[in-house]
Amino acid sequence: MNWTETSQMAIKGAIPVAFGDVFPAGAFATKVEMVADFDASKGGSRVQARDKATGLPMWAISVTDPDPDARDTSAKVKIPASVEPTLPDELPGLPFRPVEFEGLTVTPYVNGSGRLAYSFKATGLRAPSAVAGKAAAKAG
């Protein structure tokens, strides 16, 4: 196979990935904010971006990756949703909220500095199953 043949096998769109493959040490959510549509936002008013596939408003979840081997320890995961996503409950003794993303996808791209970067998108979020199980046991 030569370069011409392999260059025609491009992956189109976002690539589905398992949460644990992207965040093997877990993830901590720090905040939720609307994603601005910079083309539509003018004169100081911010217009919220909409998902191209669903038309739903886009939200960005700021995430900290606690993996000591992670090259980048912060990321944003975008979620299309009609209402602002709610972060899982805080846990005593932790500065952030543990979170898992459902329907996680990644889209690689070359950023303005010419470096490979990744855009993350998910269909939803929840408390990690281990954390949710402990909270339910404590409540019961």
Helix proportion of residues, in percent?
Answer: 10-25%
User: Tally the helices: what do you get?
Assistant: 3
Order of helices and strands: HEHEEEEEEEEH
Rounded to the nearest angstrom, the radius of gyration is 18 Å
| Tally of discrete structural domains | 1
Measured distance between first and last alpha carbons: 61 Å
Pick out the low-confidence regions: 1-6, 132-140
How is the largest sheet built, in terms of strand order? 1-7-8-4-3-2-5
Strand content is 25-35%
Biggest β-sheet description = 7 strands, mixed
Structural class computed from helices and strand pairing: alpha+beta
Tally of extended strands? 9
Characterize the overall form: globular
Describe the structure.
This protein is an alpha+beta fold. The protein has one domain (21-139). 14% of the residues lie in helices and 31% in strands. The protein has helices at 3-7, 19-22, 129-139, and strands at 15-16, 28-34, 58-64, 74-80, 97-98, 100-102, 105-110, 116-121, 124-126. It has a 7-stranded mixed β-sheet, with no helix packed on it. Strands 6-9 form a two-stranded antiparallel sheet. Mean pLDDT is 85; it is low at 1-6 and 132-140.
